[in-house]
Amino acid sequence: MRKQDRKHVVSKRFKAEAAKVDDKREYDPIEALEMVKSTASTKFDETVDVAIRLGVDPRQGDQVVRGTTDLPNGTGKTQKVAVFARGANAEAAQAAGADTVGAEDLIEKIQNGWRDFDVLVATPDMMPAVGKLGRTLGPRMPNPKSGTVTTDVTKVVNAIKKATRVQYRVEKAGIVHAPIGKVSFPTEQLAENFNVLVDTLVKAKPAAAKGRYLKKITVSSTMGPGVEIDSQRAQAATGK
Fold this sequence. Notes:
Blueprint: H1 3-18, H2 29-38, E1 47-54, E2 66-70, E3 81-84, H3 87-96, E4 100-102, H4 104-111, E5 119-122, H5 127-130, H6 134-137, H7 153-161, E6 165-169, E7 175-182, H8 187-203, E8 214-221, E9 227-229, H9 231-237
Parallel strand pairs: 3-4, 3-5
Antiparallel strand pairs: 1-7, 1-8, 2-6, 8-9
C-alpha cells in the first residue's frame, strides 16, 4: 500500500470512531472510559491518556503543579530507569531492577549523548554532581518534587519498573498529561487509576490558584478520539 493510501485509511478509521463520540457532551467518567475502549480499533494495545486543563498560571512559580503518584493498577508500560548512586545505594538500585546505575561515569555518559532511559533517579548526595547536567537534561533532571531524588531507591525504582508510578507536570498551557493504563484494562481498573490521578491533582492545588481548578478533562486512547469528562463528576467520584 502506498504511503498516501495508508494516510487515507487511518483518517477514515479515525473519522468513523470520532463519529461515535458526542462532542457536545461531557460524559460521566465510567461512560467516557468505556467509550475510549470501544473507539480504540488499532491492532496494538493502545495507551489510555488523560489531559486535564487546570485553572493555574504555570508562568507563576507558586502555581506550578508537579509531582508523582502511584496508580493502583499500573500503566501497563515498563520504563527504563537510570540511577545516580554510589556504594550501598547503587547496589540497592541494581537489586531493585534499575536498568543502568552509575555515578560520575553515568554523568559523563549522558554528557556524551547517551539517552537510553525513560526516567532518571538520584540519591540526594549525588545531586551536586548531577546538577551540571541541568542544561543538558532540562525537565528530565531528577527532582525532589517529582519524587526522583530519594534516599529510598529501592521503593522508587520498584514503583517505576512495576509501571505504577506516574510523573505529572503542568505544561505552559496549563494542561497535565498522564497515562492511566491500556485499553485492554478492565474499565474498573482504568476508573481506579483515573480517580487516583484526579485526587492527586486536587490535593496538589496551589494556594495561589483562584477560581475553577479542574477546568476541562479529556480522555483518549493513543490513536482514538478525545472524550470529554464532566469535571464535577470526576471530582465527586474521588470522594473529595
